[in-house]
Write a structure and sequence with these properties.
164 residues; alpha+beta; two-stranded antiparallel ribbon
Length: 164
């Protein structure tokens, strides 16, 4: 199944077939790839952690194919965000990933950002201590108030979903 069909299926498998935010979609795909989602997007370390230009490009293609829509919204504080909506339900091929998608859809955005960033450092071959040091260096205050610990729990819980 082509990457754009997987991308559309991930959006469709979210509650109400919607993903709120580009960053959430980027981090969700990144974390799902660590569970075996066969999209193969390459990521680079960017402002909000791992970012895939090819994923962003495929979002445009998936929109042109009419599989998802992307709508700009304005939050109460005036910031912009995007809502992705699937135009058709996800097929059975996404079923092995549904528990993880449901779990990730409930996670706070900052935790997804921290978890995906830590995961990206681990994929560079860093041990836990060095990946944590770099996470703290890159994310600073976002690691405070228990967020770092909660992000590590998120990764542990996600890993257990893979084993289930």
């Amino acid at each position: 199944m082509e990457r754009y069909r997987w991308l559309s299926a991930v959006v469709a498998a979210h509650p109400n077939g919607q993903v709120y935010g580009r960053t959430r979609l980027q981090k969700t795909i990144k974390l799902l790839q660590s569970l075996g989602l066969p999209t193969g997007y390459s990521y680079m370390n960017y402002f909000y952690g791992p970012y895939s230009e090819s994923l962003q490009s495929d979002i445009g293609l998936v929109q042109q194919l009419g599989l998802i829509t992307e709508e700009q919204q304005i939050a109460r504080d005036g910031t912009e965000y995007y809502v992705f909506t699937a135009r058709q339900p996800a097929g059975a091929e996404i079923d092995p990933y549904r528990p993880a998608i449901g779990f990730l859809s409930q996670a706070e955005p900052v935790l997804l950002e921290l978890a995906a960033t830590f995961q990206a450092f681990k994929e560079l071959g860093l041990d836990d201590a060095e990946a944590t040091r770099r996470l703290r260096q890159k994310k600073g205050v976002k690691c405070e108030n228990g967020n770092e610990e909660r992000a590590m729990r998120l990764l542990g819980d996600l890993s257990r979903l893979r084993a289930a």
